[in-house]
Amino acid sequence: MDVRWDAVVEDKRFWSEPVRAAPVVQAGEAIAPLRVHLWLFGSLADAIAERPLTLEFQGPFAVDDVIAELGRRCGPEFLSKLTTSGGGPVRHCRVYLDGEEIEDTAATARIGKACAQMEMILLTAAEGG
Amino acid sequence: MNDATASTQLAQERDDAWIPTSCALCYGSCSILAHRVDGVVVKIEGNPDSVLGKGRQCGKGVSGILSHYDPNRLKVPLRRTNPKKGVDEDPGWKEITWDAALDEIAMVFGRIRAEDPRKLLVQRTTTVTAGRNPLYAFGNAFGTPNYSTAGGGLHCGNGAHLISGIMHASWSVTPDFEYCNYAVYFGASKGHGAGHASTSNMKLAADARARGMKMVVVDPMSNFASAKATEWVPLRVGTDGALALSMCNVLVNELAIYDAPYLQAKTNAPYLIGPDKRYLRDAATNKPLVWDGAAGAARPYSDARSADMALEGDFEVNGVRCQPAFLKLKEHLKKYTPEWCETVTTVPAANVRRIAGEFGREARVGSTIMVDGVNLPYRPVAAVAFRGAQGHMNSLYNFYAIDLLNELVGASDVVGGCLGFNPACNGFPETGRPRYVPKPDADGLMITGMWMGYHFPYPIGEPRMPQNAGLQDLFTMGMTSPFLDSDDQEELWTRFELPYRPEAMLNFGANLLMSIANRESVARSLAKYKFMVSIDIFETETTRFADIVLPDCGYLQTLDSRSNFPFIFSLPGGMGEWCWPIRQPVLPPEGEQRRFQDVLLDLADRIGFRADMNAAFNASLNLAPEHRLQGDRRYTWEEICDAELKTYFGEQRGLAWFKEHGLIKWPKKPEEVYWRPFVDVRVPIYWEFLVPLADKIDAITAPRGHKVPREYYEPMPDHIPCPSHGCTAPGFDLYAFYYRDTLHTNSYTMENPWLDEAAQLDPYSYTIAINTDTGRKKGLQDGALIWVETETGRKVQGRVKLTQGIHPEGLGIGACAGHWGDGMPVAKGKGVFFNELLELDYEHVSPINLNLDLCVRVKVVPAQVRQ
Q: Is the four-CA dihedral B639, B644, B645, B650 of positive or negative sign?
């Protein structure tokens, strides 16, 4: 009896990611500049005087681009709160684009209109540093 | 009107209802039915429709009525008039209105938030699991990184939950009772009336034993688990990891029993390790390399077939000598011979070999089984651990070593093996929510899909100059921190340049004065807070340090859309059903009691951060886009609960639906329960990441005069003795420890008259257990009054219970008893306050996971000798 452990299971598709429909782009909307209304909450909120902060991008952008822009505007101290030394957001940062959570912050944001709502908040808790 | 008509009318008018809700006498949160007659709850039973408890109740749950109707419950807001704070200080309470209380809190908290929100500490009890989300939402919206779960978290979590997360993607582990044939418990009580999924597991464990599952319990004391075990293995306190290491050695080096295909496919065992203890990495992709036997070359792990990955052998890659991690581990284990183990643990070498052999052979490495039409790996053995192995400075290696037993034989999240509590869920069929599953990081190692905290246990966080008062962002393997209360906190804060000091505490139900360590140390830290608010149901010893006390509703008066944390905390593992119960009010508030959730929302409004609070709820509850809380709209707690329930279960199943039905459930699938074969992730049997972690921490601490003790950061587990093992003072010949009494929960339930009575009838609950032979040698008799003293002069008094069911060197004390405050008069003076013996400083804290050492070397002295 020497069944290969990794060969026992045949169907590996059970956990494949569900397909998400791409946002519908209204005619005339998907044109540059793309505007993002950025809402910073909790410990991030005091970095900016206005809420939301409006950012404009001339073409497709990723969350990482938004964070980089925030760094330029708010300075390195703010950026150190939000990002690791590798440049990506800290693991307890939650980002939502039009209500959908964004996990891959390097991926191009999928927006269906010229003005998107982006929210960021740091979630901390006793469990974990 | 005749008598019959009157009786019928009376019956029609009477309030007589069975209301489905959730218990909160411990964090198990079992589903219950509360029988209310004419506005009075007359009985509480388990809800047979629910998976949480399956219709069963433990003694704590049944007696909840008395906790609710306790005349000592807080009913009005109180304001301190005595500015001095101390264990013996009378707060000088005066009653105040809710408006006055909330206005003052809002003023102080508002000032702090404007100055520096980090100065607020949010503290909660672990007893009420549902408290975490509203409190953390408040803290996250407020902007503080400082949270604590008091002793309930500090004493149970830093080893147990961290390793369960890294190795099993869950908060805790359990044997797969339905299929397991051989379970080894290391200081754990899974299925014996306490802990996660306690009452569900009671039946599962009992059925497994009746079916023939052998249960070997490794524990200094034969109590709740050992009493039902096939075999009790007494060992010296704090040496669980040494026994596990020796068993691993027997398996690998003496018996050659291990699951090579599992190690190749699902762990980092094939990853090549260089002389610097680090992975060899591919220059182009930076991925760890393995030796591909088919190619005769080193390749990134993702490019080779797992069956071709070498587990043993010496190789040279780009001029660097290297070996697979498995060979490193195999060589490392050789020193842990059963003979060595006997000297450390006192477990006879022959028993170590026998138990390891039984475990290895029962694992049936290579076998498969069909479950619901799916062919799966079958490894019917499990090694589990919890509070016993956890309560030591060496807890991280204890748990690492114990879990290696599962990993070596492939008994990890497969049929019959060691299961995480539901690490993968494909969601409710109609909505696909909540959906979570582990995923790999760039090194192929597992990241949990769901976690109780927002910082996952792996990848390990990047150390930085601390911003958290608990220093967990510097010591990033730490979870709950002792430094929020320790004697040397100021020295540590100064040394590591914490840029602020905590000023205010919002405490929800935690009695940290009793639950963490000796009361003098904790009292000193509490007295430093300039402002403390306590939301509680009783005036506890800790509440007496508060400036303002707010009377909370109890569990029969409140509402929670999630009465527990879904699903990695207290839903039983194994096949069966998913189940999401709610907690709903059975009774109205009494006096001026208010639900803490409403109070937090009110405070957010008064301080002016409702938009942040809404955003925090959106994120922490992961609300669907169509149910997200908008802007700064003032949602009620009912509306927030409704939004969460509709997010997960659809528009038609909001709060109203759940109030009627109490819960929802649906069948689990084999691919969810036994997810590991279906998901391409690996777990680390070699913790390579500890090496650079130590370097990074050291780079911060060494310039500030603090060297990281590298022996705690080695990539393979070792036996590191606790300070108690090094005590050589004459007469200090016993290892004192406490155990969790199944009659009680933390320090809370001693106030319950039924439980107190049961505990008084129990020969152990309120006494000090010492081995009969040891006690007689000391001239002790049952019932004798003794002092238990530590080397530093800390001492507690209690009555002896002599028993053969404890290791000859052990001294066991039940629960977290010994209340001294007047606010809980039933509890006052009952039992022994073990924590008084504990030191609370860096020297007694693990320098890697911040675990407080909970064992202490003591001597016993007859009390009358000192009088």
A: positive
**CB contacts < 8 Å between A and B, how many?**
168
Q: B342-374: string of b/e by CB count within 10 Å (b at 16+)?
A: bebbbbebebbbebbbbbbebbbbbbbbebeeb
Instruction: Give the model confidence (pLDDT) of B651-699 as tens digits.
Output: 999 999 999 999 999 999 999 999 999 999 999 999 999 999 999 999 9
Give rounded-to-5 percent helix, strand, coil for chain B. Answer: 35, 20, 45
Cβ of A121 within 8 Å of Cβ of B140? The answer is yes
From the list B435, B625, B671, which residue is nearest A99 (CB)?
A: B625
Q: Could you give the CA distance from residue B812 to residue B159 in angstroms, rounded to a whole number?
A: 21
Residue B272 · residue B280 · CB < 8 Å: yes
Question: pLDDT band at B151, cuts 50/70/90?
Answer: confident
Identify the pLDDT of residue A129: 34
Task: Note whether A6 contacts B: Cβ–Cβ < 8 A.
Answer: yes
Q: Is B42 within 8 Å of B36 (Cβ atoms)?
A: yes
pLDDT tens profile B291-324: 999 999 999 999 999 999 999 999 999 999 999 9
Q: The tokens of B809 are what?
A: 């060197």
Angle, alpha carbons A96-B172-B458 (nearest 5°)? 50
Considering CB atoms only, which of A12, A91, A121 is closest to B615?
A121
Question: B264 and A6: CB-CB below 8 Å?
Answer: yes
Residues of A whose CB is below 8 A from B643: none
The token pair at B186 is 């290391």
According to the model, what pLDDT value does residue A12 have?
64
Separation between Cα atoms, residue B171 and residue B190, nearest integer Å? 14
Q: pLDDT for A71-91, tens place per residue?
A: 999 998 889 888 888 778 888
| B9-33 confidence digits (pLDDT tens) | 766 778 999 999 999 999 899 999 9
Closest alpha carbon to B422 in B622, B562, B565: B565
Q: What is the mean pLDDT of residues B633-648?
A: 98
Phi and psi angles of residue A62, each rounded to the nearest 5 degrees, phi first: -115, 165
Distance in Å, alpha carbon of A99 to nearest chain B alpha carbon: 5
- pLDDT band for position A32 (cuts 50, 70, 90): low
Predicted confidence at residue B439, as pLDDT, reads: 95
B453 vs A42: CB contact, 8 Å cut-off?
no
Q: Which residues of A touch B136 (CB under 8 A)?
A: 123-125
Return the residue matching tokens 């004459």. Answer: B730
Rounded percentage of chain B residues whose pLDDT exceeds 70? 98
CA gap B277, B127 in Å, rounded: 42
Q: In this predicted structure, what is the pLDDT of residue B675?
A: 95
Does the beta carbon of B441 lie under 8 angstroms from any beta carbon of chain A? no
Which has the minimum average pLDDT: B10-19, B178-187, B228-237? B10-19
Interchain pair B141, A100: CB under 8 A:
no
Which residues of A are less than 8 Å from B620 in CB distance? Answer: 123
Gap between the Cα atoms of B22 and B52, Å rounded: 9
Distance between CA atoms of residues B824 and B818, nearest Å: 11
Q: Assess whether pLDDT exceeds 60 at residue A94.
A: yes
Which of B453, B475, B671 is closest, CB to CB, to A126? Answer: B453
Whether the predicted interface score ipTM is above 0.90 = yes
- Chain A contact for B456, CB < 8 A? yes
In this complex, is the C-beta atom of A75 within 8 Å of any C-beta atom belonging to chain B?
no
Q: How confident is the model at residue A22 (pLDDT cuts 50, 70, 90)?
A: low
Tell whether A123 is within 8 A of chain B (Cβ). yes
A59 in reach of chain B (CB within 8 A)? no
Identity of the residue in B453, B468, B628 whose CB atom sits nearest the CB atom of A127: B453
Contacts of B476 in chain A (CB under 8 A): 129
